[in-house]
Structures are given as structure tokens and as C-alpha cells.
Amino acid sequence: MTPVPSQPERPRIRVAVVIERVREPNRWQDWAFSIVDVVPDEPAFGAEPRVLRDDGRRCRTLYPGFELELFRDQAEGYHLNLSSGAPVWFVVWRIDDEDPSLAWPETVSLSYDEAGRWLDAQERVDNVPLTPDVAAWLQAYTDANYRPEPKQRRRPQSFVAPDRRG
């Protein structure tokens, strides 16, 4: 039996997400939520969400403990994010069905394709700008792993036999 070479560990970083909740942002809503920032996770943050600021109207909460791994099969999505001109974090978040004053982040990604699938599935997805150091880290990974599909020229349909037209 031939040993299978071990797969090199995937690049990963740990991050925390900051969500802001606003009470009665207008006369039609009781609560509004937004993703404010994605920051490097620090051991001092602990494992549980913690309120950073709450003045009764605006509340910012830090949610630590998200691990973001890069995958080769998402390299095209990373490339699309980076080539957009303004690369971002994509954050999926949810609101509690029973208590609409509570919301939390579910997952974090850097892949434009993955964010598109979440949006197609009717998920709540917000984005916040990447810092230059994370963008450079993602760019290095994408440069090493993304190979665009070669473009194939399609023959005009008028040159294809009628029984082979699609």
C-alpha cells in the first residue's frame, strides 16, 4: 500500500465580527442590524459574545471565534472579490425568530461565489471592507492557486449543422 501524501494545511485566520443594533431606526422598524467590522480574533476576547457599547439606542456586540479557511476550489471566488476594486468580508447573519431584538453572525467568507450562493438562498449577507494586510494575504493565496479557465470560442450557430445546434 502506497502512503497518501498528506495535504498541506490550508491557510486560516481567526476573526471576530462586530454587529450594531439600532433601536427604532425609523417609524416602520423596531430594530435594525448591520455588520460593522471584522477584526482579528484575540485571546482576550474570550469565547462568548460581549457588548462593546450600549447607550440604549445603539448597541455594538463583538462575536469572537470565527475561523476562516481558504480552499483551492474557491480561488475563483477570491479572485472575483479581489478584482472588484474594493475587496470585502462577506458575513452571513441571522435574526432570532422569537426575539427580533437579537441577531448574530453565522459565518464569514472571502469568496464572492460563496456569498452569491448565500444570497441566492435568501440569506442575510453584509460585507465590510478588507484591511490591506488581509487583502495581501488573500492575494498571495489567490495568485498561487487560481488558474482561469481558458476561454473557448463558440462557433456561430449558423455554422453548426442543424441537428447539432443547442
UniProtKB/TrEMBL annotation:
This is DUF3305 domain-containing protein. It comes from the Bacteria. Residues 146-166 are annotated as: Disordered.
